Amino acid sequence: MILRGHHLLCMLGFKGLGYDSDFIKNMDTIIKKLKDDDDVLIKLVDNVDNICEKCPNNITGVCENEHHEDSIKEMDDTVLNILQIKPETYMKYNDILDKIKLLMTEEAMDDICCNCAWKGYGYCVDGLKNLR
Ligand code: SF4
Ligand code: SF4
Q1: Which Pfam families match (predicted)?
Q2: How many domains, the chain?
């Protein structure tokens, strides 16, 4: 499975919100798969991933929010940097979760997610709290 850095955080508090029904269904399937088997090997990236696969903002394999200031890629790089993981690294999902528990903070998420429409719900930061 391929996951971009900031999606590690988005998955923590997913409550069925998303861009459209295909996106939501795909995200739900990925999260359930990881819950059933957290030994799954993940390739961590800072570009499109298996969640982006079904996103309406993914035009020809590139996120339309990818290349501007405060871009999605910067969010990925910030998350991976905090977790001390280089892009293109392969890790088991349960080892990634251990790193999130140890290294990610609510303050860092507050900053990383500052431009996200779903931040106001507080679901994702609650997901981080529930992980601990
Ligand atoms: S607030 Fe947005 S970017 Fe941040 S983890 Fe949640 S869905 Fe992802
Ligand atoms: S908005 Fe961009 S990064 Fe987010 S899921 Fe869609 S294509 Fe991927």
Answers
A1: DUF1284 (PF06935)
A2: 1
Pairwise CA distance, residues 93 & 85, whole Å:
13
Name the least confident of 12-16, 37-41, 45-49, 69-73.
69-73
Question: Mind listing the pLDDT tens digit for each residue in 84-118?
Answer: 999 999 999 999 999 999 999 999 999 999 988 88
- The boundaries of the domain holding residue 32 are 2-131
Cβ distance 79 to 8 under 8 Å? yes
Q: What is the pLDDT of residue 62?
A: 87
Report the pocket of ligand 2 as residue ranges, CB < 6 Å: 48, 51-52, 55, 57-58, 63, 65, 72
Tell me the CA–centroid distance for residue 98 and ligand 2, in Å: 25
Q: Which two tokens stand for residue 1?
A: 């499975």
> Residues lining ligand 1, CB < 6 A?
6, 9-10, 113, 116, 118-119, 124
